[in-house]
């Protein structure tokens, strides 16, 4: 993630009286780290847990609460609502949830919410019995029908020693949900996107495998950017996975598992109103062992030398039914002289809409956090100079939109 991701975005964070309030500090830290301008409004109950000074220190803005409200200084529930692009209530107590569903505005925080005309995100936190109470559940359903966004609580051991649903969602889950609301784009919103990533590991015996050094970092960056732009994302990977749950992630090991999962997801994606996209970032083994052995092959039995018989693997990208999909392939090369021609051949031979060529060097080797890519389409080629893999993913998504 780049530190200007939320630059220019104004975010209001409302905090209510909950033991989970300390996590709101970390959410604000992430928002500020991403370049967001953050202000805080506190309920009086929230001040029993953490002082306003702490939130002022983290947000670098004056906190709105009963004692600081000033109409002459434009620090009020009306002015602050006009200022913000997004209102997040983290944590949202059961008391606040049920009040809002009935339109009750009897404190500064609920007044701010009722007067707010832009998106509101709720991150509930409460005791399990309070959260599962039919009244609370009906309130959450009503608020969602009114257009409120919800980051569902988690099930775990709570501060009260009850175990069950009610724990505040992870700070990463809340942060990315907020960023998605602020960054979504009409082109990508509700569009199905599949990203494959990581290197396949082809089984030799029950201990060893044939693999490669692909980390899956570029695929993870692409999946994250697509999610932030509003897409319905499925990540099929053997490599790195998201730190939040909103991206549907399928873990695979070998090329056969990847192919099975991919074909199933592509069949589901065809029913979409918008043309779906496939980013085939996975590094799939060109060859697989001819024989797979049970148990562990012993060096004492194999002798001083051992020859592993391999057979050519199925070319999954060529074999896929790509009709109705925009498909971008990825190609890693080490020979600069032949790389562009090989990528062009891949584009034409495999019936793709685009190819991302990665010429491996020291600065963008497998597992690095940076990349340099040539985006090759049917009509033009664009060079994407060395950047973080997240920034490269943003550029790839922008170019893919024009296919």
Q: What is this structure's SSE topology?
A:
Elements: E1 10-15, H1 21-33, E2 37-42, H2 52-59, H3 79-83, E3 86-92, H4 94-101, H5 108-115, E4 120-124, H6 128-132, H7 134-145, E5 149-150, E6 154-157, E7 163-167, H8 171-183, E8 192-197, E9 202-203, E10 209-210, H9 217-228, E11 232-237, E12 248-251, H10 255-269, E13 277-280, E14 287-289, H11 299-302, E15 310-312, H12 316-319, E16 326-333, H13 336-349, E17 354-359, E18 370-377, E19 381-388, H14 389-400
Parallel strand pairs: 1-2, 1-3, 3-4, 4-5, 8-11, 8-13, 11-12, 13-16, 16-17
Antiparallel strand pairs: 6-7, 9-10, 14-15, 17-18, 18-19
Helix pairs in contact: 1-2, 1-8, 4-7, 9-14
Your description of this structure?
The protein is an alpha/beta fold and 403 residues long. It folds into 2 domains: 173 residues, Rossmann fold (3-Layer(aba) Sandwich), CATH 3.40.50.1950; 215 residues, CoaB-like (Rossmann fold). The chain is built from 14 helices and 19 strands. Helix 1 crosses helix 8 and helix 9 packs across helix 14. The chain starts with 9 loop residues before the first strand and ends with a helix. The mean pLDDT is 93.
């Amino acid at each position: 993630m780049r530190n200007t991701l939320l630059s220019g975005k104004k975010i209001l964070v409302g905090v209510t009286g909950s033991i989970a309030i300390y996590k709101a500090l970390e959410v604000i830290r992430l928002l500020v780290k991403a370049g967001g301008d953050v202000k805080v409004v506190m309920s009086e109950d929230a001040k029993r847990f953490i002082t306003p000074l702490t939130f002022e220190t983290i947000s670098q803005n004056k906190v709105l609460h009963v004692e600081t409200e000033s109409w002459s200084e434009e620090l009020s529930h009306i002015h602050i609502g006009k200022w913000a692009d997004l209102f997040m209530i983290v944590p949202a107590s059961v008391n606040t949830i049920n009040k809002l569903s009935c339109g009750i505005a009897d404190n500064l925080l609920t007044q701010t919410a009722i007067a707010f005309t832009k998106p509101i995100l709720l991150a509930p936190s409460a005791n399990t019995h309070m959260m599962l109470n039919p009244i609370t559940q009906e309130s959450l359903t009503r608020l969602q029908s009114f257009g409120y966004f919800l980051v569902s609580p988690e099930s775990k051991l709570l501060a009260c020693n009850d175990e069950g649903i009610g724990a505040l969602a992870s700070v990463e889950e809340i942060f990315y949900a907020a960023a998605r609301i602020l960054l979504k784009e009409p082109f990508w919103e509700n569009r199905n996107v599949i990203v494959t990533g990581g290197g396949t590991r082809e089984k030799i015996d029950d201990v060893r495998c044939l693999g490669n050094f692909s980390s899956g970092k570029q695929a993870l960056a692409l999946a994250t950017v697509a999610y932030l732009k509003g897409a319905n994302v499925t990540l099929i990977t053997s490599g790195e996975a998201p730190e939040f749950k909103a991206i549907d992630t399928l873990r695979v090991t070998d090329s056969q598992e990847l192919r099975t999962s991919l074909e199933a997801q592509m069949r589901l994606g065809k029913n979409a109103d918008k043309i779906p996209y496939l980013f085939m970032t996975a590094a799939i083994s060109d060859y697989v062992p001819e024989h797979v052995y049970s148990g562990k092959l012993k060096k004492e039995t194999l002798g001083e030398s051992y020859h592993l018989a391999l057979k050519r693997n199925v070319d999954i990208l060529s074999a896929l039914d790509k009709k109705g999909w925009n498909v971008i392939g990825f190609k890693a090369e080490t020979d600069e002289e032949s790389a562009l021609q090989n990528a062009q051949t891949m584009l034409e031979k495999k019936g793709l809409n685009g190819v991302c060529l990665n010429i491996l060097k020291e600065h963008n080797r497998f597992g690095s956090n940076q990349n340099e890519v040539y985006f090759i389409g049917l009509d033009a080629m664009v060079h994407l100079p060395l950047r973080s893999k997240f920034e490269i993913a943003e550029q790839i998504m922008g170019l893919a939109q024009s296919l």
